[in-house]
């Protein structure tokens, strides 16, 4: 594992559900200890795996959802094959209750199949769950025409979501199982060696560096990123704030993990996604003659 020595700043033992009013002003990740320890799902999770599974399944409405499936031995490291030509796992629609049962059935296996439900909108599949498992996001003081935060749930056994960035601010809540976060500021992009824009494991380009066994001959500048890295580990009931555009790898450390997160932006919704700017620039400039691209680089840099 890479030697990240700097730990994220902590707000210790938050009053249950009380988010600091000035959180939007934080420019670095911040751990919010105990923020969701009052959630019913957290309490069930601390009781037992079965109790958590049955509680969650009781809210499930039967709608299938996209699920990641990997062979035993993948160890939840969702990414690419050796030459980065295709993903190293399959994506299929599945019943969530059956996915949870599969996780439970393999809890005692030394090499279970990898299974992961990523970024599932809670209200789409678990109506009523938020009644006793939700955050008051009024601290965000959103612009009148901005998108309201929509909580999502992530369910799986051991997993590694490769280092990526999100365009929105984020609060991620560890509900069941421990989570490790390895984070880097936005300016470290060139030292993280981002992979293809498509296909991607989960929507965003990910770092091609294996954080558990980095190849410094192949990725020499990654050493510079390590010097700027920040780490954090969450217990069930803890949460972390990750500012927009910060790179982060997220690892589910236990045999059954559940996370709930909230993305939001204070930008008004008519602004759309800034990723479209990047895509349009690539389409417009990629195949231009080299001297034209060099000239346009000066314009963009300016």
From TrEMBL:
What is the species of this protein? Alteromonas mediterranea 615
Q: Which Pfam family, giving just one, matches this sequence? A: Cupin_8
Q: Which InterPro entries match?
A: Cupin_8, JmjC_dom
- Record-annotated JmjC domain positions: 115-281
Protein name as annotated: JmjC domain-containing protein
PANTHER family in the record: HYPOXIA-INDUCIBLE FACTOR 1 ALPHA INHIBITOR-RELATED, HYPOXIA-INDUCIBLE FACTOR 1-ALPHA INHIBITOR
Species lineage, top-down? Answer: Bacteria, Pseudomonadati, Pseudomonadota, Gammaproteobacteria, Alteromonadales
């Amino acid at each position: 594992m890479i030697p990240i020595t700097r730990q994220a700043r902590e707000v210790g033992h938050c009053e249950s559900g009380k988010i600091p009013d000035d959180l939007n002003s934080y420019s670095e990740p911040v751990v919010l200890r105990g923020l969701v320890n009052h959630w019913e799902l957290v309490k069930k999770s601390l009781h037992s795996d079965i109790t958590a599974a049955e509680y969650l399944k009781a809210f499930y409405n039967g709608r299938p959802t996209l699920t990641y499936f990997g062979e035993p031995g993948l160890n939840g490291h969702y990414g690419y094959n050796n030459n980065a030509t295709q993903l190293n796992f399959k994506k299929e629609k599945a019943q969530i209750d059956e996915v949870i049962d599969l996780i439970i059935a393999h809890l005692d296996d030394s090499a279970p199949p990898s299974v992961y439900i990523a970024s599932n909108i809670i209200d789409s599949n678990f109506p009523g769950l938020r009644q006793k498992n939700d955050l008051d996001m009024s601290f965000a003081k959103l612009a009148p025409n901005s998108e309201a935060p929509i909580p999502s749930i992530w369910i799986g056994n051991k997993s590694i979501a490769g280092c990526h960035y999100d365009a929105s601010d984020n609060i991620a809540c560890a509900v069941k199982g421990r989570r490790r976060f390895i984070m880097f500021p936005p300016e470290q992009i060139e030292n993280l060696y981002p992979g293809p824009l498509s296909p991607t494991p989960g929507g965003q380009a990910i770092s091609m560096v294996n954080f558990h066994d980095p190849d410094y001959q192949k990725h020499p500048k990654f050493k510079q990123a390590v010097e700027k890295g920040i780490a954090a580990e969450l217990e069930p009931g803890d949460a972390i704030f990750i500012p927009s555009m910060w790179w982060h790898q997220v690892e589910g450390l236990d045999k059954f993990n559940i996370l709930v997160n909230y993305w939001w932006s204070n930008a008004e919704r008519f602004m759309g996604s800034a990723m479209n700017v990047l895509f349009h620039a690539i389409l417009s400039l990629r195949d231009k003659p080299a001297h034209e691209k060099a000239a346009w680089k000066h314009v963009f840099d300016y």
